[in-house]
Amino acid sequence: MKSDELISKLDEGRLVEAIAAAERQTSGEIRVCISQRPWDDPLAAARRRFQELGMQKTAQRNGVLIFFVPESRQFAVWGDVGVHEKCGEDCWRGIVDDMVPFLKADRYTDAVVRAIARVGSELARHFPRASDDRDELPNTIVGD
User: What is the model's pTM?
Assistant: First the structure.
């Protein structure tokens, strides 16, 4: 599948609202990226894109990137050091495993919304929203 095909199948408004809803519960930041490049290692690509998007600059180092490579039908979830220290590898694996059935059923928006909700729950548990919290990163879906 090409990236523009995936993008056309996603309900971007629903994804942006899911990100906003998740971030209302946490100081953490969530972004979704859809790559047009055919990466061999989606996790390494997610880590690279995370840096390029400046997601490591959040005050609490609590950003999470959900990264898709439609052409190779792969995806990855990458969390900053603050998140990874609190959540760990099992958390990411669970989120990824939870998305697979939705993706296999071509329910792309549902897969991403579910991942956003799961990431948001983890972030809220470890990084609750403070009264003075501000949105540090845009909620829009990005490409490369």
Answer: 0.92
